[in-house]
Design goal:
It contains 28 helices and 16 strands. The chain is α/β, with parallel strands linked by helices. It folds into 4 domains: 91 residues, no CATH class; 140 residues, Rossmann fold (3-Layer(aba) Sandwich); 187 residues, NAD(P)-binding Rossmann-like Domain (Rossmann fold, 3-Layer(aba) Sandwich), CATH 3.40.50.720; 88 residues, Rossmann fold (3-Layer(aba) Sandwich), CATH 3.40.50. The strands form 4 sheets. It has a 7-stranded mixed sheet with strand order 9-8-7-10-11-12-15, sandwiched between helices. Strands 2-4-3-5-6 form a 5-stranded parallel sheet, sandwiched between helices. A two-stranded parallel sheet has the order 1-16. Its main location: mitochondrion. It is found in: Mitochondrion. It holds the Pfam family malic.
């Protein structure tokens, strides 16, 4: 049959409201029941229509809005529009009350495909997990083996295959093993996203190094040879003038989170051009696993403007041209940002792995116009600041002593300058004085030595941190790293390059100096954990951007290694901004995220030199960080609300209610019943 299902008005189990659904401005009667009264009568009938426990399912809000819309037509009627706005406010309370519905059955998911098309769509495919009734409903009978395999059985079978792979590749080169693990996970990702993300969430400690750093760097280097199936979108310089229409080629009607790269500075590997798409894919996998962002609402994007890597120019999947520069480059980024926010005005855009000059330029250009942030500048800075605050606690000092810490930062790139900016802001706020005074204890060193005001061609972004020559312990322009360490005796050291520098750290004024080797992947780390504990002393606090094993110091002592990785912050920053409906991501929101991470660690862990939580708890940590970011957005009046929850309701939430609100809006992978709709 080709008939449509009965409308809600003709269903006998719904109480009809006492007003005409065909009212117009001419015959509208203001004496009709107000929306709150109407919703009160309707609520008992609408509760069973969708299971609100699964807030990520798209079913609840459309059902509710459609039911209200049937009774409150808005065509050219100001009074009706006012009633609709009031109804939406009342609906948010109704929606939250229905979230207490006790059934554990996930809400249905509407699909517009049938048969083999569903099997080829990883968003909806369940492999052999489709129930027989669903196979009939979706035209899958005969397209799958007859036996239905449960979700739990599929999960167990995959894990058995993965453990078998680990056993069979034992003893092989590390890179070979890493790529083999990535391939088996990627095949599952290409086929069945629900099972993929469940496996990832439950085994995040094992799989994060495979889908994220450090393996993702190896994947990017070999991307052209590993390519099997496209993921995300690719905008190139050849698409100039077409991006506004191209953006509608993406099949999802709603996108919440976009991670964008131009491939110009992938990790510590340099210019990889279009092969850098692996970074946005890996970052968004962490958004789903840690922050519970719905995978149907994420979008990895590669902005291909060419590459200056001669080897790739000879053979890769991107444009075979030199990189665009200047106005040509920025016009491409402008067009992309306008296109994205034309279709998805609430989408958050995270800039990732842009070379330094464009990282700062794009951040300053867009952060006041769009909800966006740069993870290399702001995310790295937030994680580093949390580590620095933790190091103060590890030294047995109160947090207020952070303003007295002498900190040396090596590297005047986007990460190093980002750390300095955020740390200076924190010191200025804690000390209650200006940023100029706060910069006194910070020292910036680049490849030419100590940065002072005598430096020729001084980078404008580094200029605020340049010292007066000779003003501090006689240190002059270009003073070597070893000389600075010996004279300044820093308590915290971000990035160290030579063993002689590590040895000089023994002379620090701190009883427990902190060393952070932030570069990744592992092959690019400035020093290993073993070298740090061996040459700088057993009493140090050590953090690294890449994963290292803890170090056996003998006599039952363990040197704890802290992975100072952005994954502890960026999922929570994105989640909090999304659920707040933030207009932009402010410095205050980023500071709140960093301080939340710093306070997450217990005093007992701090005494052992542990500055960051175990990755096992990353989902719980992300709830805390997301709630902190949301509260900061509300405090700064940047929150516009999310779905049915408005800014006033966000403002009235207690801390516990905010945490509960964040938790219930996180997606979790389960097989939802699929309902076909043309």
């Amino acid at each position: 049959v080709h008939k449509k299902q009965p409308t809600l008005l003709t269903q006998p189990n719904v109480i009809q409201p006492n007003f005409n659904p065909n009212l117009t401005q001419a015959n509208f009667n203001p004496t009709q029941p107000n929306p709150t009264q109407f919703l009160g009568r309707l609520s008992s009938q609408t509760r069973p229509l969708a299971n609100p426990q699964f807030a990520n399912e798209p079913s609840l809000s459309p059902y509710l809005k459609d039911h209200i819309r049937i009774y409150t037509p808005l065509s050219h009627c100001p009074m009706a529009r006012r009633m609709w706005n009031a109804a939406r406010f009342a609906a948010s309370s109704l929606t939250r009350s229905t979230r207490r519905f006790s059934t554990a059955i996930p809400g249905p998911c509407i699909v517009h495909k049938r048969g083999a098309d569903i099997l080829h769509d990883p968003w909806f495919n369940k492999d052999t997990g489709f129930p027989l009734t669903e196979r009939d409903r979706l035209g899958l009978r005969g397209l799958l083996p007859p036996r239905v395999i449960s979700f739990e059985q599929q999960y167990a079978r995959f894990m058995e295959s993965y453990r078998s792979l680990e056993k069979n590749t034992k003893g092989q080169p590390e890179g070979v093993v890493a790529l083999a693990k990535w391939r088996i996970l990627n095949r599952l990702h290409d086929r069945n996203e629900t099972l993929y993300y469940r496996v990832l969430i439950d085994n995040i400690q094992d799989f994060a190094p495979v889908i994220y750093t450090p393996t993702v760097g190896l994947v990017c280097q070999n991307y052209s040879g590993l390519f099997r199936r496209p993921r995300g979108m690719y905008f190139s310089a050849k698409d100039k003038g077409e991006m506004m229409s191209m953006i509608y080629n993406w099949p999802a009607h709603q996108v919440d989170m976009i991670v964008l790269t131009d491939g110009s500075r992938i990790l510590g590997l340099g210019d990889l051009g279009v092969q850098g798409i692996g970074i946005p894919i890996g970052k968004l996998d962490m958004y789903v696993a840690a922050a519970g962002i719905n995978p149907q609402r994420i979008l990895p994007v590669m902005l291909d403007v060419g590459t200056n890597n001669q080897k790739l120019l000879e053979d890769h999947l991107g444009l075979r041209q030199r990189r665009l520069e200047g106005e040509e480059y920025i016009s491409i980024v402008d067009e992309f940002m306008e296109a994205v926010h034309t279709r998805w005005p609430k989408a958050i855009v995270q800039f990732e792995d842009f070379q330094m000059k464009w990282a700062f330029e794009t951040l300053q250009r867009y952060r006041k116009r769009f909800c966006t942030f740069n993870d290399d500048i702001q995310g790295t800075a937030g994680v580093a600041l949390a580590g620095l605050l933790g190091a103060v606690r590890a030294q047995g000092r109160p947090l207020a002593d952070f303003v007295k810490q002498k900190i040396v930062v090596v590297g005047a790139g986007s990460a190093g300058l980002g750390v300095l900016n955020m740390a200076v802001q924190a010191v200025a706020r804690m000390a209650g004085n200006g940023e100029a005074a706060a910069k006194y204890h910070f020292f910036l060193i680049d490849k030419d030595g100590l940065v002072t005001k005598e430096r020729k061609n001084l980078d404008p972004m580094a200029a605020p941190f340049a010292k007066e020559p000779g003003a501090i312990d006689g240190l002059m322009e270009g003073a070597s790293l070893v000389e600075v360490v010996k004279k300044v005796k820093p308590m915290c050291f971000l990035v160290c390059l030579e063993l002689v520098v590590l040895q000089a750290m023994r002379e620090s004024d701190s009883a427990k100096p902190a060393i952070f080797a932030m570069s990744n992947p592992t092959m690019n780390a400035e020093c290993t954990a073993e070298d740090a504990f061996k040459h700088a002393g057993e009493n140090i606090v050590f953090g690294s951007g890449s994963p290292f094993d803890n170090v056996d110091l003998g006599n039952g002592k363990v040197g704890h290694v802290n992975q100072a990785n952005n994954m502890y912050l960026f999922p929570g920053i994105g989640l909090g901004a999304l659920l707040a409906g933030a207009r932009l991501i402010s410095d205050g929101m980023l500071q709140a995220a960093s301080e939340c991470l710093a306070s997450y660690i217990t005093d007992e862990d701090i005494r052992q030199g542990i500055l960051y939580p175990s990755i096992h708890s990353i989902r719980h940590l992300t709830v805390e960080v997301g709630a902190a970011v949301l509260r900061a957005a509300v405090a700064e009046e940047l929150a516009e609300g999310h779905c049915e929850v408005g800014p006033r309701e966000l403002m009235n939430m207690s801390k516990e209610e905010t945490l509960e609100y964040v938790t219930r809006n996180m997606w979790f992978p389960v097989y939802s019943p699929l309902v076909h709709e043309k």
